[in-house]
Design goal:
By secondary structure, this protein is mainly β. It contains two helices and eleven strands. The strands form three sheets. It has a five-stranded antiparallel beta sheet with strand order 1-2-9-4-7, with helices on one face. The two termini are 16 Å apart.
């Protein structure tokens, strides 16, 4: 079943909740301790790489790596809220802007983004330099819904049950 979702403007979608504030604090704390994640960094030009990191109960924490042109495609995280921070390079986060277009924000090292439940976004590396980011999800990630743009609006294509931050879109 295909459903058209009307997205909120990017500014309204950035509203913080107790969950996203907690996740933001968590990813920043982990980013500040490279000994917890540095040995998990690996890159592949054929596919994105990711590793699950130690996390508190009820939260998924992932280290994700990005080479040029790698992306997640437009998606939402089911019931999960999320936060991500960049620890190497630059990534671009894209969200529907509510006016039929997309709004892109570049995030360099230390850049932070929160994603409340239901928000649709894409994360990608548009630069030559490889990038590394740390993502946290609560409740734990159990599904992702992928979207295509139709007349500028996101339309759900499919929902995938998953416990990983990357699935075949």
């Amino acid at each position: 079943m295909t459903t058209t979702l009307l997205s909120r403007p990017a500014a309204a979608a950035a509203t913080e909740t107790p969950t996203t504030l907690r996740l933001a604090t968590l990813v920043r704390g982990i980013a500040a301790q490279p000994h917890r994640w540095r040995d998990q960094v690996r890159f592949s030009t054929r596919e994105r790489c990711w590793s699950r990191l130690e996390s508190p109960a009820g939260v998924d924490v992932w280290l994700l790596t990005w080479t040029r042109t790698q992306s997640t495609d437009l998606h939402s995280h089911g019931l999960a809220s999320a936060a991500l921070t960049v620890v190497q390079g630059t990534i671009t986060e894209v969200r529907p802007d509510g006016r039929g277009g997309l709004h892109a924000d570049r995030l360099g090292v230390g850049g932070l983004r929160t994603v409340t439940t239901g928000v649709i976004h894409d994360v990608r590396n548009e630069r030559d330099e490889p990038a590394v980011s740390i993502h946290a999800y609560s409740p734990r990630l159990t599904e992702m819904t992928f979207y295509r743009l139709e007349d500028g609006l996101p339309v759900a294509d499919r929902t995938v049950l998953t416990d990983e931050p990357e699935v075949d879109a």
